[in-house]
Amino acid sequence: MQAKSKPVVRSLSYEIDVVVPYRLDLTVSVLRRLSANIVDVLTPDGEYVRAFDGFNEPLIARVTQARLDSLSVALDGDLEEHPRALALVCRMLGVDRELGHFNRAAARISWLRPLATRMRGVKPPRYPSLWEACVNAIVFQQVSLHAASSILRKVILEVGTPVTCDGSTFHAFPSVESVQRAADGALLAAGLSGNKLATLRRVGDALLSGMLDEAMLEERASPDALELLCRIKGIGPWTATVILLRGLGRLDVFPMNDSSVARNLALVTDSAPLGIEGILRALGPQKGMLYYHLLLARLDARDDVGRASTR
Questions:
Q1: What CATH number is attached to the domain comprising 90?
Q2: pLDDT over 90 for what percent of the chain?
């Protein structure tokens, strides 16, 4: 049964500097993947809204960009929690990421240069928790973007926390505890396969027991962090790579053998043959940005870049 909506009070606004070029609409688009995402919300006037659970009380962040070099962040919730929430928003939106290496390398690749120019200002987003990164990576295994998004939406509606602010309801991403408490039947009915549910349970157990945490991954080089994640049954190289890319902001990894990446490459290059390994070598330590640019190319073809959320 869905939790009762919790009201939010107390608001304060902040200005945060960003490394230019920066575009909020592009960064939110790659963070949320599709406009059907009900956690990461983009309003018709370009405001990004996100509800957070896991604070002293539910908290809502509203982010706008009126200037090229800064973002405005309004936080609704416990004032004592604002510094932590503000740091979380900055992490999620990649405000301090410098992408000079990728931009210079992309300018030397004929088919990538027009896309990189068009999408200049996108920053690598990062989920607010390792748990959210794991859930997204597992749910999106081996299914289409739309199918995975639909399944995750149903899971969020089933076990997530609705948060009400100014008459609008937003949905916080479900905590580890709320998913672990949820009945198998409810999660299977949302569309999760038995194998994916089992993997989520194992990840939840590892996080709650302390056998896995973000610090363990942060202190390791990417190959070692990948190996650690792959020790969990149900997490293979592709899933572990997406967790590092989207959860830890590691740009030195790229999800190979990804059918969506292959289709997006064909879209951008007009199906011309190319050596992806050579391209990744050229992009070097920031090759993960290619993943986000290819996603933007697909979303752009569907007119879903910067589109207001369909809540």
A1: 3.30.310.20
A2: 84
